[in-house]
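Retro notes, structure queue

What went well: the backlog is down to a handful. What didn't: a couple of records were mislabeled last round, so from now on we paste the full input next to the output in the thread. Example, using Reverse transcriptase zinc-binding domain-containing protein from Trifolium subterraneum:
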Amino acid sequence: WRIGSGDNIRVMHDPWLRGSANRWVPSPQPAGVYQLSVRDLLHDNYKAWNIVKVRNLFSRDVAEKILETPLVSSVREDKVVWDEERNGCYSVKSGYKLAMRYLIGCLPTRSRLLERRVECTLNCPVCDEEIEDELHIFFRCAVAQDSWSAAGLSFVLHNATYQQTNAMDRIFAICSNESSDIVGRVAMLLWCIWKNRNDKLWNDNVHMPRQIGRHAFDA
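Corresponding output:
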């Protein structure tokens, strides 16, 4: 996150810490903290951390991580940014980082957040029809499936060889059996699907599947 007003960033429900390998404020915390936004940790009349309040609410280690998170006075609006690529463009590096986060179970899908004892709704933020986990967001969501088709990759999506019930196993199978060109396009598509999911969740921007899939089709 890039902190603007802080009104839209939830202290315990969003990965907003900077200068730390773990962007989440760890649980458990005092009950009242779960309802706070980042704005509640700032001074009322100017953009700076309320040091006394932060240190009263959190342990020393957590408080220091919060106070190390930079605030820029010229930034007015809260915005989700990709640390991997600050210009929002795909690269092999950003795709690799997404894959690594996925493989080690760190993508903050809603089912994953529940495992971390973060209170949140479980339905997919894109289709709002099923519980969001890795298998759903990348393979079973209606928008994702239409994006696979728009990318010219429906033959991969529906291949009987790739119907594992575990998303990680499914991706491994694709990587093991398809050409490097197809694997590259699949990686691009997965990145685009995840980026679209975040854009819908945090900015309420809706992209058509043909727009999402076209990026991978042209890769």
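Agreed that this is the format going forward. Reviewer comment attached to the example: The chain has a mean pLDDT of 86.
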